[in-house]
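Troubleshooting log. The previous structure file for this entry was overwritten by mistake, so regenerating from the original sequence record. Sequence copied from the archived sheet and checked twice against the printout by T.R.
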Amino acid sequence: MISVNDFKTGLTVEVDGDIFTVLDFQHVKPGKGAAFVRSKLKNLRNGNTVERTFRAGETIGRAIIENRGVQYLYASGSEHAFMDNETYDQFELSSKQLEWELNFLKENMTVNIVSYQGEILGINLPTSVELKVAETEPGVKGNTAQGATKSAKLETGHTVQVPLFINEGDVLLIDTREGKYISRA
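Regenerated output below.
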């Protein structure tokens, strides 16, 4: 059990039978009445974000999340196969569970699987990945003051805004949290 007074960003807790990670929290001490903690929580099972208010000092269950290294093997329709790097066990996750992550997943890529008491909740990608530009129009010089960008479609199908000097075949460093271009690799 953990007190809501000890909330930290990234902490995983169990509330009403669901597993949440704390995205944001604020301790509020009104002039009249009891203090409370206003929090923003993300459900790890379905990805929904909820706002909850707890009384100060209230205790809730702490969820111990396990992270293991796995390798992405291949896609078969709407199922995606992974292999545990230690036990070599294979398992599949659906495209629905990996909606955002599929924008950055390549075959043979190593990622972390997130599980709670044997239940697989999803995967954690590295903060940045190297992806090749599959298609982009050529950059046209002129008529730009500074910081001009164009669209580029990556090998995974994700589209990002990139500077004009990027060409097809270039390998780029992409931020997986926001899906944005960082630099050339």
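The mean pLDDT is 89. Archived copy saved in two places this time.
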